[in-house]
Known about the structure:
With 337 residues, this protein is an alpha/beta fold. Helix content is 40%, strand content 17%. It is built from 12 helices and 12 strands. A hairpin with a 5-residue loop joins β3 (124-128) and β4 (134-139). α4 (76-85) packs parallel to α6.
Amino acid sequence: MIAKKWMLAFMAVFFSMTASAQTELKKVYDENVNPIEQIDQAVKKAKSEGKFVVCQVGGNWCPWCLKFADFITNDATISRLIAENFVYIHVNYNPRKSEGEAKMRQTKALLQRLNHPERFGFPVFVVLDGDGKVIHIQDSSFLEEGKGYNQEKVIRFFKNWTPAAVKGEATATSANNVGKKTLVAYFSASGVTKGMATQLAEVAGADLYEIKPEKPYTDADLNWRDEHSRSTIEMNDKSSRPAIAGKLANMSEYNVVFVGFPIWWYTCPTIINTFIEAYDFGGKTVIPFATSGGSSIKKAYDDLSGTYPNINWKAGKLLNGMTKKELEEWVRDDASK
């Protein structure tokens, strides 16, 4: 009887250990590689192949990091999307001071190189262009669902940051394309509006499209104190319509369009007029949003709804510093009604 109980206990422990081994996630971070050299090599490879680099920053100590690596490896659609557009690397971040001074200096250099992504928690994704410039830092919490990750959100993140999408050569697409009806279109001069637009698209389950000027604005162009600067001249001329680089090919698919911009001279930049006049917004709901150093969005809304009275406008909102929860509440309670 004692021998039988011993055998049952042994079998229970054995099967428990086997199950644990089967469910243990693969460690994907090389803790011995120099992360700066790893990034430089990835950038060189990406540039030669016309791709971007995605750095998944984290470590084998981070369960959610390993969970994401497993998630994208076992999803054929995501794996193919990554392989076609990115050089994807797992960049090891070691927060332990016990590793020695040399390792700590290396860690500090890594964080500086990637514009301090650690502020978003881990894993965190840093997108680099072909020249190695940081063009986006992705907070992974926006991609989560329950105890794992949401496929549609992950696909949308990668699609929004492919080389073609960033260059404006691709049409805005969703995870499944079919039945996708919401678009976030934005113009951003300094990057502030871009950041809020990206978060809004993630929260709203929308596609993302950047309204890019054919001639980019320089710092001198944006000097509002200079009466001869490009932006001042444009804003003083109500007929000004700055040219846009490229055109969205599938606008007809959307019935809700968020249009974002920074507030210039208390209203929207005239490039927004260029965008509005380039498409047929019949049957669509258009919702403006903005970022501002102090002005409200009221005049911009009044100007747009007054200039284009045949469009179904909804009241706009300033998104300055809004949290993810606040964006979700706005989209759910106001913008979606």
